[in-house]
Design goal:
By secondary structure, the protein is mainly alpha-helical. Helix content is about 75%, strand content about 0%. The longest helix has about 35 residues. α5 runs antiparallel to α10, α9 runs antiparallel to α10 and α10 runs antiparallel to α13. The protein contains 13 helices and no strands.
Length: about 325
Amino acid sequence: MLSYLARRLAMTIPTLLLVAVAVFALVRLIPGDPVQVMLGDAADPAQAAQLRAELGLDQPIPVQFMHWVARLASGDFGHSITNNLAVLPLILDRFQVSAVIVLVAVAAAACIAVPAGLVAAWKQNSLLDLSVVGGATLLLSIPSFWLGLLLLLLFGLKLKWLPVIGYVPFAENFWQAVTFIVLPIATLTMVEIGVLTRMARAASIEVLRLEYVTHARAKGVPEWRVLARHVLPNAFAPTWTLIGLVLGHLLGGIAVIETVFTLPGLGRLLVDSIFARDYPVVQGCLLFTAVIYVVVNLVVDLCYPLFDPRVTVA
């Protein structure tokens, strides 16, 4: 296990290096000059040149990249161009909002989708199976932003059960904060239920056809025990892998949901920083998201043998 962990960690180093190069290059392709954004169109050329020198934007691109990597190695993500705040604390503060929404949504989706997929596989080709598959396909086909707007219209404007816009930190008022994140969590949960249900159903159908399931039934084992003890643990392994991919994907792509519900999360910070041409914050957000994605997939791979005893790591 330790050697496997060491190999996987070693593989992440070139991956993150390539991500850093790609992030740095893509950010420089964003149209517009951050100095011009900060000083305005009527800025004095001498003042603009001085600010560009202070920010290091007057140096060659390779030199800027080397300085950025050197600061990253010491844990310094730089400072925001727009407000001069340290980038890493700013990212961590915004990440708390995104992490709570994504983790709760994925956990809720898994708790609903895995049993639904198992039951649909057990009753394959029945009306129940067709209903589950149809519902999952429908949820999978609806864009997340459109579903979020529908939920806002129904529960926020029509029924007035939940607030429409805004956010309150948990430390300030826990229950009021919960009311602001219910709809974003419900939106992501409903979207991800579709893909997880289809995966759980496919994996369960494959396991139900195996000989040891037939043998257990022939021995007179109750059907609920066959499903819970023999089918579910082995069918959950592929779904667990997909859960890890979904988790990483949502953490990186939650900007749409945060924009719809006006939440101060990591995705919203990234979008605002792109419009402001705030290079350090954009680079920090993208690199931080890439690191989270790599870590999540590493944890999923290490936990895979716990769900599938046929898999071993050496």
